[in-house]
Amino acid sequence: MKAVWNNMTGWARRDRGWLLNWSIKSIILWALLAFILVIVIMVALLLYGKFSRAAEKNITLSMQQIVDSVGYNLADYADGTAQLYRAIEKHMLAEGEWSNTEVTKQLDIIMSSRDDIVSIALFNEQGELLRNYPEAPFSDNARVTEQSWFHSALRVSNHLSFSLPHVQNLYGSPYKWVVSMSKGITVQHNGEPMYVVLLVDINFKKIDELSSRVSLGKRGYVYIIDEGAGNIVFHPQQQLIYMGLRNESVEKALVSQVSYIDNVSGSKRLNTVKSIDNIGWKVVGVSYLDEVMTTREELSRYIVQVVGVVLVLAFLISVPLASMLTRPIRQMGEKMKSVERGDFEVMLPLKGPLEVVQLSSRFNLMVEKIRGLMHQNIMEQESKRKYELEALQAQINPHFLYNTLNSVVRMIGMSKKEETITMITSLSRLFRISLSKGRRTIKVSEELEHARHYLTIQQMRYKRKFDFRIEAEQEALNGYTLKLVLQPLIENAIIHGIEYLVDDGMITVSARLEADALIMEVADNGVGMTKGQLDELFRKPQQSNAPMQAGNGGSGVAVRNVHDRICLYYGHSYGLSYESEREEGTTARIRLPFIQREEEEGGYE
Amino acid sequence: MNRLPTTALLVLRSLFVLCTAALLAAVLLSCGSSSATIANNQIASHRIALVAPVHSAEQAEAMRIGAEAAARQFGLELNYAPFESNEDAAEQLAAAIALLEQGAEALLIAPADEETLRAVGQYGTDRGIPVIALNDERMPRGVGGAIAIDNEEAGRQAGKALAELLDGKGNVALLKPDRNDPGLVLREQGILEALSKYPSIQVKEGSVCGNLRDACWVAAKSMLDNERLDGAIALQSVASLGLADEVRRRSEAEQFKLVAFGSEREQLELLQEGVIHQLVVQSDFSTGYIGVEQAVSLLAGGVIGKPTLLETRVVDADNMFWMNNQKLLFPFVH
């Protein structure tokens, strides 16, 4: 249990120590910084989420728009060429006659208005050329009947079909890439119905350029597939696909209507689809999502920058703020330091924040109190010295000396040699113990010895008017006591108790231990004291500097002196007390702490 | 007693403050520098140089388109050096060195000869620039990658095509190049291997010619004069043109079966006319594209190690306009 407590206090101390290691300034500074950091990071995260979602949405949207616009352009272009086809058809076949100069003139006009028409050709059902424009030598290896545009014209009559882009092989070099528009039409030729196929080849370059110029991000691209079979109409890497070096999974694009995400060799791609209905193609935009991620990375980098700047600003602001807040405390610290150096006259100004004012006023009170205590301490020290001096003076009371020496002279005159020796010996012992090398405390045994000598002298002086007894417990003898505390009490007992007694007096001096306290008593069987007399003994003298008076009056002062000295040395729980009964006697009791070692000498001696 | 810890504490605290300030500064600096790198990435991309083959403008153009498609996809800048028909190895080497001096970070070259490739490879090694050989299997020191057709397989395709044209019997000969190219040697080996499976086919003494059409015509003439041949294979496109000239002159296009390599416009005409009967075609677009792909991989610190071999395709007058072959034979939309 105790160990646990110790541990806990240890923890508490360490904890407090850790906190104390931080100045208030740094606590304010770091707390402020941490708070700002948390707020900024939270805001940054929220903004990041919001922005990156918005960015992704924007990118998806803009992709859709780009692909849509490619689709619309292609559809427009297809519409335009379809109209052109109808115009050619009208001019060439309306009359059922295609060889006359009128038709040639019309075709001239149409051809000169459009530069993307490569050639116009009219075939019969067997694939034989009826008329072509411009009139170029027709290739022998053309194999018209095997061409896809011819097939689709025969398959559905009177329906304009667009072929996949292919190399035109009707005329030999230059082999141009064309998209063939063809339609099977029944016309009245020379009065007979005839089924003909009108072929208009338009240059694929326009579509190729339109598609290859579209860029979706850095790596994104657009490709076009044929909605019927999924053949690739245009792809920037068409050759690689044909060589099997690259794959474009058109299956998903074929069935998808808006957009989907696929994963090609580890990178996620967003595919956006747009159908071109009039031509039967589908535009697919491919963009790489990791480019979107790049945008996100840039955003996060930007946010980190902002957080950094905010933190630095916060740092720059919180440093002066923290030092401003802690300035009064530092000032207080300065003042305290000067108190530490011994200047007790400092006063803290009562201004600043509430807590600081409170603390300052407490501090001022405390300094005042310390000042008071110090003053009191000085006073006490002075009193001690004074009392000691008084005790010594009491010891060498000229009155006592005079009386004693008178008695000695008288004894010598009466030739009481033995008694004279005893008296002189006692007197000398008395003074030796009084001096006791200047020590303030002496052993109880010495104090009792001192009392014995004093009593011996007084006994002789008072012509054996009283007897005395000294009793002591063995343990009590080893204790220490202030010196010269018993003598005034004995003197008091003789003067007030025995002197006026008719019978022989009896003075008992005793020392014993009573629950850690040393009790010394001087008891007499004298006349006793009234309550008033007892009170008189302890009353503080009117004038503290009045020297001890010789004779009767002096003993009262000496008794009080004993009590004061004990209180000063050992505290107010110790001291002198009196019990008295008229005609029965008086007991003076000294209560001291039981101390078994000599007290250190005071510094002022 | 209190003095020392207080001082130590002060020192510690000031250190702490300093460290934090330094950290903040570092964060700011790194932010600044990272944004700078983004900007750099956006403005200055890698520069890659493509040195075209000599004596084959069409092939060069197809390669360029392929390389450009790849460059666009990888966000690179492509510098291209084409050549006139009268320029040769020396001009090619000079052009390659010039492109490298201009700051190309990787070089694709279809070398005129081994010497040129070796020199460019050495130059690349000295400056730490990756070099990739196109249409060449050789990888001398400094050449980090090579893209070529599988010549042996292409040879086998040609040999088989000729044998089938001749119904497995007859006399044939090869019109070979006059330079020592391991690719062409492999091509010849492939042809002979395929022909050896037809016991009734005799391989007669062929002839040799260089990069000039007239020279090849002369060589073909002497070859046809020496032997009565039913068919021949020309290992290079120029040789096939010379050979076709001679066949046409003799008006033997119907009987004489000619198989050739290449996809030049004139060869395609001859194919349609029936003078050349089969063409073994390679995709130069793919060569250019894959070349750039490999350059990117080398620039990123990758290692390629061995040559990349591409497939070839046999094309005749019937299937040349098929969807799959059109793009191979006519790569440009014009």
TrEMBL record, chain A:
Residues 482-596 form the Histidine kinase domain. It comes from the Bacteria. CDD domains: HAMP. Keywords: ATP-binding, Cell membrane, Kinase, Membrane, Nucleotide-binding, Phosphoprotein, Transferase, Transmembrane, Transmembrane helix, Two-component regulatory system. The chain crosses the membrane at residues 27-48, 302-325. Pfam families: dCache_1 (PF02743), HAMP (PF00672), HATPase_c (PF02518), His_kinase (PF06580). SUPFAM superfamilies: ATPase domain of HSP90 chaperone/DNA topoisomerase II/histidine kinase, HAMP domain-like. Its main location: membrane. It catalyses: ATP + protein L-histidine = ADP + protein N-phospho-L-histidine. It is a multi-pass membrane protein. The keyword Nucleotide-binding applies. GO terms for molecular function: ATP binding; phosphorelay sensor kinase activity. Signal peptide: none annotated. Its EC number is 2.7.13.3. GO terms for cellular component: plasma membrane. It is found in: Cell membrane. Residues 323-375 form the HAMP domain. PANTHER family: SENSOR HISTIDINE KINASE YPDA. This is histidine kinase. It comes from Paenibacillus roseus.
Automatic annotation (TrEMBL), chain B:
Residues 48-301 form the Periplasmic binding protein domain. One of its GO terms (cellular component) is cell envelope. One of its GO terms (molecular function) is carbohydrate binding. It holds the Pfam family Peripla_BP_4. Transmembrane segments: none annotated. Keywords: Signal. Residues 1-36 form the signal peptide. Its main location: other. It is found in: Cell envelope. Belongs to the bacterial solute-binding protein 2 family. This is Substrate-binding domain-containing protein.
